[in-house]
User: Fold these one by one.
Assistant:
Number 1:
Amino acid sequence: MPAVGSKCRVCRQPAIIDLPRHNANFCGEHLLQLCRRQVEKAIAEHDMLARDDRVLVAVSGGKDSLAVWDILTELGYHADGVYLGLGIGDYSDESGVYARAYADARGLALRTIDLRDEYGYDIPTAAHATRRVPCSACGLSKRHLFDEAARDGGYDVVVTGHNLDDEAAVLFGNTLRWDVEYLGRQLPVLPARNGFPKKAKPLMRLTERETAAWCIVRGIDYQVEECPMAAGNKHLAYKAALNAIERDSPGAKAAFYLNFVEKMAPLLARTTQAAAGGLHECSRCGAPTTGEVCAFCALRDRVSGRPLVPVDVVLGRVRRHGRGRGDAA
Amino acid sequence: MPAVGSKCRVCRQPAIIDLPRHNANFCGEHLLQLCRRQVEKAIAEHDMLARDDRVLVAVSGGKDSLAVWDILTELGYHADGVYLGLGIGDYSDESGVYARAYADARGLALRTIDLRDEYGYDIPTAAHATRRVPCSACGLSKRHLFDEAARDGGYDVVVTGHNLDDEAAVLFGNTLRWDVEYLGRQLPVLPARNGFPKKAKPLMRLTERETAAWCIVRGIDYQVEECPMAAGNKHLAYKAALNAIERDSPGAKAAFYLNFVEKMAPLLARTTQAAAGGLHECSRCGAPTTGEVCAFCALRDRVSGRPLVPVDVVLGRVRRHGRGRGDAA
């Protein structure tokens, strides 16, 4: 919260938010302006979108994906949404309501895919059956189905709501292990190649506090809860570590991620891009894969049609035994 | 502390220390064995020392520099010490006593250099005059005078007591900024070149808890206090952040530093080594430098002969205004 009586840096009207890394306070209108400009800057610097691109936004019902959909629409892009029903109890039910309400109120197109109805499993069941952290099956399912939805719908690019905090936390995890392969791929835009659609992260320059403020000022209702299955994962621990550093040195988090993108990613791209060969079509679904069957179809083979496992059972397991392998980062 | 009744992994005698990253407890004798082996491994993997090298150990009187001197001597290396009197009040006086006592009790050669007597300044005075953080003038003075002592004494290599925690914290700071130039130079051994002596960090695989335990088991008295002028510097904040991560994931800190050395440093070395040209001798002292006068002689010009400033005055300034530029990392 800004100090009582603080003024917007731009117009001197009462401020609604303080942004220590910009060393300034902003009113609602000029917060929106800042967000729009940061998104425009990200799009321009990284060739994320062309003016006439057909854009598919991966919408979760949370603040980030609704904010990016809203900003792109406001900036005049043609952006449709796709929502994936993950079957994570009340959390998913409510998230779907927020996504649908946003789209309907604005007359935007939102396709819904339901893991249970269309693929015979949900995330709690997959986590239980694979004995891995829930984020593992969830990330795999999302990547695969968003890519597929983009191919099916003839979209030019898949946009996700990853913000600066998300990207910095993933970067932090990959850096702690110096996973050079992952580091080389952690870019704000990935070009279309080998059957994968182009992917872009226009919120790469905005923090989660800023995307939340965008939604509040714009009157967008969103899912405020964190996913219950993410509780205790390393991604959240990395966010906490970076937040502690940011409190001591405002701007340190943005510098960490943006300097990586500018200075380090180009060095790494040279060493890791050679490994892209050897892809062919999954014999089951046609998606690009290095194996006979892609990881998504392999997951379906393992978990589809099993009796559904409630969220609480999986969370009980997590609490009893700690987190498994393959954490979210 | 190990749990009551816990046993040494090697001999099943009562343990004196638990090392979560090794998932084991150790008695005093086998803790020493572990330390010796980690140092031997570091020396062998990175070609730090040859059997007949004349080694100069930079001794501060703290646990790390006394431990590395002790371990190298025990392993049969010919290692002399050099102690630099920094003039940081009681802290420096006591540190000097520990260094001298260690050397005298073992009949080892220790050269002492005193900043005030020989160069007309001390660290508090330099920090006050330059209006930078004390660690800046301190690091500059140490690097220069240890290099000079090695050249003057005909030593093959300068050894410092930097441990795994130190190296991981410096790496963390450089990584937060993606300072590619600094990252490329952060190696456990630097070969002799351009008039600079070879430098090595044989404790790179040991934590500060392990070097402290080495000293305790071996009966070495050392300066336990942290340097009062380092209070609040970012290096300590980075150590705290890494310690929080280590508590959640034992071994994460070692993986961060050792994976960097193994996987990332070789990639970076290619991009940064080109910049070594353009060095010549300082017109004042003969040390290699890119300017007319080296940074150490420039510092002396600025601060030598000034009235000495007590530690408390500098610390008062630090507390009032926060830290200046050029922090320790």
Number 2:
Amino acid sequence: MTATLYVCTTCRAGEVLEEDAPRPGALLHAALSAADAPDDVEVVGVSCLSACSQGAAVALSEPGKWTYVYGRMTPADAPDILAGAAAYAASTDGLVPWRERPVQFRKQSLARVPPFQMPLEAAE
Amino acid sequence: MTATLYVCTTCRAGEVLEEDAPRPGALLHAALSAADAPDDVEVVGVSCLSACSQGAAVALSEPGKWTYVYGRMTPADAPDILAGAAAYAASTDGLVPWRERPVQFRKQSLARVPPFQMPLEAAE
């Protein structure tokens, strides 16, 4: 399986921008696309992750795993994001031990959502 | 299919609470569980949706649909949340037209994540 790293390409990250100015989300997407993605991670641009006030935002998902969303990301965070994505892809359920998470993933979580197949007792 | 409405039961919603005080997330879960859920919506408590600074949080997910996460919810929002969950369950892809979304869903989005099966051109 391959983990998908979604990157919001339209995010203004709360900034007031000229109409033709590059958006922070597009700059983040460019930085992540230009870097060497881990083999088992696919970087996919999405036109809106609806995290507008907390962007730029990325999300990690893979069937059978918890989905994670992170906000307040900048192009400088690209190495951390890709390292975190690699750890996520290597995990069995999306739950990466705290100490193995990049600092930005520890600090900038916006949300996580359980996988569809989660046994209900594991959610409580 | 049934949509799942996840409710973070441990959320403190940014409040400083006594150790044994009921948590805002637990109160929200109780309000949602006490109400009549739509037939095609299952309310499931989760111990953490990692939206701690923007809680109380709920998430809507269903295979093949976009996943949505909403924050800053209170027990008073339970009717809006359940109405929004019903509209989500009735949709084919999780994308409910803006005017049909409850006001709180329009205002309090934390994030959304594409479904696994999304054609890549639809994400751009």
